[in-house]
Amino acid sequence: MDWVAVALTEDVPPGVVIPSRIEDTDLAIWCTPSGRYHAWSDRCPHRGMRLSHGFVRGETLACIYHGWQYNETGSCDYIPAHPKLTPPDTICVPTYTCAEEGGVIWVSLTDTDRPLPALGGRTPVRSLPVNMSAADLAAHFGATTFTTIAVVSDVDVLLAVQPCTGGTCMVHALAAAEADRSSVSHWLENLRATLEGVPA
Amino acid sequence: MNAAIDNHWYPVAMITGIDAPRETLLLGKKITLGREDGTCWVLDASGAELPTVERFGHLWTSPGQPNRDLFTIPEADNPGRRLVDVGSVKVKCSPLRAVENFLDIAHFPFVHTDILGAEPHTEVDRYDVKIREEVDEVWATKVKFYQPQAAKSAAGGITTEYMYRVPAPTCSVLYKTCPPRPGEWDIITLFVQPLTDEWCEVWPWMALYDDDSTMSEMVSFQQLIFMQDRSILENQIPRKLPLDPGMEVPTQADMTSVAYRRWLKKIGYTYGAQLVAA
Ligand code: FES
Ligand SMILES: [Fe+2]
């Protein structure tokens, strides 16, 4: 599978966990205090609690329900109800391939040897949910993939499209450092209005 | 029609809260309830009368033919107790998830931080659990846990002893150390009305020894606790309770939940249960 933009790094500072998704796969995206990003299944193996409601402690992600702590490989390291127990290796959270590039956190749900998308030095402007599928949005621009879509019109923008549940998507817009950010932001809002068929 | 599910008593209202007739859901079906001349009534969707029991401040009914009387809590009748109708909270989860959460103590330090638990007091010692065959109920006894603020009436941190009882598939009774009266038990119950298999109305009820707190203080204390639980219950995946082992990972601290799931399976109670791994 190809890379998908799941969040902007500015929304996941060190020590923070947030929810995200790729289609029907719920993700917990978190950043260790030392700045490494991880994308995991958003479900604690113990009692199914969403890990995105948890908290980062040291270099582990802890579940909010019973405080089980998972190390960076996804293995359970510590069960507070049984502090003397070494948890068996079988208790682990499914993890996904995750990388940071150009201020965007990218995830592949399967192992991949594809290179990360080339961003041409652009950086994120903003993310906006759009009520349209990622595939339809790509088709609107005549693109065959939605990982990144280069748009050159009155603005120079790169769109990284994240497919979400129910045929919706999240569009992350990137632009050159010298670009006028507020006009890119407006352009994106107009694009959404056009795509969703509502007057801007 | 499934006798293993229908032939139980279910809570559907707090008696003092019934004024005009109103509709609600029971097991996914519409029912109507009301009170006339001090007596409560319940009708099913076709207008047929359903059996009723008024007990523990609540109205109970059944869409089937219950083969036994609604359970009792004899200790609740002891003089000096204050009976507290807490009200209700609607929760988007399986009724079975709501009961299982009530049976769980390991979450106290993380979900009810500085009230029912606090780090580093997280260890759960071994306790006793069994299915009492003669009454067909799940019981957990000798459950002990350190609590910073065990009840509205507690002055400071104490090690609280708990006994849990599951007398019906969607009900649980908790007997808990009573801070002002050592040797007696406070009683806190969780009566769950299955609106659907993924949506429930939780009616907590208490019979406490507490001469100092006002009624509204006791109610607010318990409501705060349930609001904290709701933030968990609405974020567990799946919403239904997995009864088959494999999908979730229990530890020794979860012996009560393991027994509860096993008992549900034994009695064929599958409403709100997830039977195959999704
Ligand atoms: S559900 Fe995550 S620690 Fe229990
Ligand atoms: Fe709780």
Describe this structure in words.
The complex is a heterodimer of chains A (about 200) and B (about 280). With about 200 residues, chain A is mainly β. Chain A has 2 helices and 14 strands. In chain A, about 10% of the residues lie in helices and about 35% in strands. Chain A folds into 2 domains: about 5-110, Rieske Iron-sulfur Protein; about 125-195. Chain A has a 6-stranded antiparallel sheet, with no helix packed on it. In chain A, strands 5-6-7-8 form a 4-stranded antiparallel sheet, with no helix packed on it. A 4-stranded antiparallel sheet of chain A has the order 11-14-13-12. With about 280 residues, chain B is α+β, with helices and mostly antiparallel strands. Chain B folds into 2 domains: about 1-70, N-terminal domain of TfIIb, CATH 2.20.25.680; about 75-275, Naphthalene 1,2-dioxygenase Alpha Subunit, Chain A, domain 1. In chain B, strands 8, 9, 10, 11, 12, 13, 14 and 15 form an 8-stranded antiparallel sheet that branches. A 4-stranded antiparallel sheet of chain B has the order 2-3-4-5, with no helix packed on it. Chain B has a 3-stranded antiparallel sheet with strand order 1-7-6, with no helix packed on it. In chain B, strand 13 (about 170-175) and strand 14 (about 185-195) form a beta hairpin. The model of chain B has no long low-confidence stretch (mean pLDDT about 95). At the A-B interface, loops of A face helix 3 of B. FE2/S2 (inorganic) cluster (FES) binds near residues 46, 49, 63 and 68 of chain A.
